[in-house]
């Protein structure tokens, strides 16, 4: 059973919420962009996978330096910065159209991926560090559950927005706005919630 008292810890509650919101945005967008590459650009499933390489190429190296950045700036600031960076990438994609150059899309995928790579390691370590060691297994389970729930919600929500083929781009733009706003909300919640309660 999950001890609800864990959510009385400010950082535990905030990082759990952040895990949910970030995954709504990221996995929902990956779903929408997969459809964009295949349905509007005519790419195969394999080519669509390769189209996400700029995002992956940004996630991996930034993941490696995220711990050092968090040591210098603090985990909450690093998480907030990563979420804000990804939000900027989402808003920069708002001009996307069926004939948009892949390189323009790929450049923004790098920003989104870099933000993700920056925020996930300190998010995980902050959540685990906010509880007693004896409860770290439960905390890890909560983070995994909230992130998986966010992924399902993101695909369901954004899938509904782009479900009608004649309004795909309008739905894609709405998904980008929602993702950007969720990421900014995550950034603000972590930034302003980092101060201890009086």
Q: Would you give an account of this structure?
A:
It is a single chain. Helices cover 79% and strands 0% of the residues. Helix 1 packs parallel to helix 6 (136-161), helix 1 (10-40) packs antiparallel against helix 7 (168-193) and helix 3 runs parallel beside helix 5. The protein has a single domain (31-193), classed as MFS general substrate transporter like domains (Growth Hormone, Chain: A). The longest helix is centred in the N-terminal third of the chain and has 31 residues, at 10-40. The chain contains seven helices and no strands. By secondary structure, the protein is mainly α. The model has no long low-confidence stretch (mean pLDDT 89).
Count of DSSP H/I helices: 7
Tell me the series of helices and strands, N- to C-terminal.
HHHHHHH
List how many beta strands DSSP finds: 0
Indicate the CATH class.
Mainly Alpha
Average residue-wise pLDDT: 89
Architecture (CATH level 2) name: Up-down Bundle
Kindly give the count of domains: 1
3D shape: globular
Q: What's the CATH H-level superfamily name? A: MFS general substrate transporter like domains
Query: What quaternary form is this?
Result: single chain
Structural class: mainly alpha
CATH fold-level assignment: Growth Hormone, Chain: A
Termini gap:
30 Å
Unreliable residue stretches: none
* Largest sheet, strands/sense/barrel: none
Into which percent range does the helicity of residues fall?
A: over 70%
Proportion of beta-strand residues: under 5%
Indicate the radius of gyration in whole angstroms: 17 Å
């Amino acid at each position: 059973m999950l001890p609800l008292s864990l959510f009385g810890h400010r950082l535990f509650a905030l990082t759990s919420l952040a895990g949910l919101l970030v995954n709504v945005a990221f996995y929902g967008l990956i779903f929408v962009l997969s459809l964009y590459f295949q349905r509007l650009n005519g790419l195969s499933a394999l080519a669509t996978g390769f189209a996400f390489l700029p995002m992956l190429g940004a996630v991996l190296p930034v993941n490696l330096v995220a711990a050092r950045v968090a040591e210098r700036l603090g985990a909450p600031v690093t998480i907030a910065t990563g979420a804000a960076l990804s939000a900027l990438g989402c808003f920069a994609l708002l001009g996307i159209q069926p004939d948009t150059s892949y390189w323009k899309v790929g450049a923004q995928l790098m920003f989104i991926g870099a933000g993700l790579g920056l925020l996930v390691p300190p998010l995980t370590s902050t959540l685990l560090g906010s509880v007693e060691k004896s409860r770290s297994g439960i905390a890890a389970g909560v983070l995994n559950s909230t992130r998986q729930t966010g992924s399902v919600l993101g695909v369901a929500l954004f899938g509904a927005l782009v479900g009608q083929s004649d309004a795909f781009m309008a739905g894609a733009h709405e998904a980008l706005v929602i993702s950007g706003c969720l990421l900014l909300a995550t950034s603000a919640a972590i930034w302003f919630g980092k101060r201890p309660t009086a």
